[in-house]
Amino acid sequence: MNVDVSKLSYKIDQQSILHSIFLQVRKGELVGLVGPNGSGKSTLLKNMYRVLQPDEGMISIDGYLLSEMTYKESARKVSVVSQETAAAFDFKVREIVLMGRHPHQSMFRADTAGDLSIVQQALAKVGMAKAAERSFHTLSGGEKQRVLIARALAQQASFLILDEPTNHLDIRYQLQIMDLVKNLKLTAIAALHDLNIAACYCDRIYMLKEGYVVASGKPEDVLTTERLLEVFGVQAVVSPHPITGRLSIAYISELFHDAVSVDKRAEKREETSDANAMHLLSIQL
Length: 285
Ligand SMILES: Nc1ncnc2c1ncn2[C@@H]1O[C@H](COP(=O)(O)OP(=O)(O)OP(=O)(O)O)[C@@H](O)[C@H]1O
Description:
The protein is 38% helix and 25% strand. The protein is α/β, with parallel strands linked by helices. It has a single domain (3-220), classed as 3-Layer(aba) Sandwich (Rossmann fold). The N and C termini lie far apart (63 Å). The relative contact order is 0.14. Adenosine-5'-triphosphate (ATP) is lined by residues 12, 17, 35, 37-43. Residues 12, 17, 35, 37-43 line the site of adenosine-5'-triphosphate.
């Protein structure tokens, strides 16, 4: 499963929201989409799961254009865990996950034993098998999110789109959900606000600013100190995590910017004295 977004542009009321986006997700990759509020992450994902239609450009899956598939066909290829999936009615967990089977069913066919078994397996994969008969509304935020991932799994699509999958979750559930997504080894794209989560879990990252892709590549190539300042307006220290070796970002509040400039001045002084020492050394030699 390879996904290609090519030259995609999207407008609302003549105002450009996305500008000529090129993006690829290769088989087995977890790709991160990061950027400030309003940079276009959700809008791009909505174009990818067909809630919105691009004004220009195209999206293809394994070479087949998404726009030429029926909605049912595309639902068999693409599953979504979005921010707006709160169920309006009080469904049981099992019923929520069964909804993932709809793209595989004909209109008047009842759920088969096969469907029920797939649902049970999906719930087991996310560690929620015991909650099958519980009301969805009684679950915690993290448990709800796991059930929605189970629904996406029951859909048996090979491409998963996640819009802020860890929003509103405490840090333990954030890590648990991302560990789960990573362990499932799906081909996936996730809009993420937490840049440390993106750095830790994503194979590649696309960074958006005002509807443009301003950087893409491996976390260490995208999440640089300079770019965090330029795109998010935030100073940060970016370094390898002492345990995981992945990139780790420590933000510096404006309250401490004086300390940063004092530090920089000290660094400069050290550099100058080092340079002077080298100069003296070269004269002596
Ligand atoms: N229906 C709409 N009508 C008008 N403007 C919209 C609409 N939907 C999105 N926008 C605008 O498009 C831009 C991109 O929004 P989008 O929700 O895609 O950003 P985002 O990067 O997902 O933001 P966030 O991180 O805050 O979730 C924003 O300026 C937003 O206000």
